[in-house]
Amino acid sequence: MKVYTKTGDKGETSIIGGRVPKDDPRIEAYGTIDELNSFTGQAVFLAQEAGFEELREQLLQIQHELFDCGSDLAYAKHSEDKYKVSGPLVERLEEWMDQFELENPPLERFILPGGSALSSALHVCRTVCRRAERLTVTLARTTEINPEVRMYLNRLSDYFFVTARTANVRAGMPDVEYVRSGKVFR
């Protein structure tokens, strides 16, 4: 099988049920989700290197769910009966975050992304996830989408933030507080 099809040489690509320009907001949204999935794959490796097995397993599951998010956004017509992303996925992310948050020190000020290699990678995932979420919000202004994808991405970026902090805790590295920040979290 050849990977190249030449069908996109004129700037269009296939979606489920049609074709659109490659810079269509739908392609921007699920293309950014694909980018996030790649960064998540890097975090899977770093979690394994850090011996953070629970996180590694969760991130692998999230990678599959990110594919589901992209798939749900790839329908040319609203197809509620075919969507894969649903509320229980969002609730499960919340449960995972609640467990990891028990390990984290109280947050008082804004923190800088960074610390351990794993934490830094998770912060990259967080920021790419926020971009994917923004693009999904933009898409939803003009196209009917699965609203659960937007909620999943919103919660997922929080998950990346919490786990980035937990990765630093487990590596024995404190959060680096933003020096110009007052106490903003109480």
Automatic annotation (TrEMBL):
Keywords: ATP-binding, Cobalamin biosynthesis, Nucleotide-binding, Transferase
Signal peptide annotation: none
GO molecular function: ATP binding; corrinoid adenosyltransferase activity
InterPro entries the UniProt entry points to: CblAdoTrfase-like, CblAdoTrfase-like_sf, PduO-typ
UniProt pathway annotation: Cofactor biosynthesis; adenosylcobalamin biosynthesis; adenosylcobalamin from cob(II)yrinate a,c-diamide: step 2/7
GO biological processes: cobalamin biosynthetic process
Oligomer status and interactors: Homotrimer.
Family assignment from sequence similarity: Belongs to the Cob(I)alamin adenosyltransferase family.
Official protein name in the record: Corrinoid adenosyltransferase
Gene source species: Paenibacillus uliginis N3/975
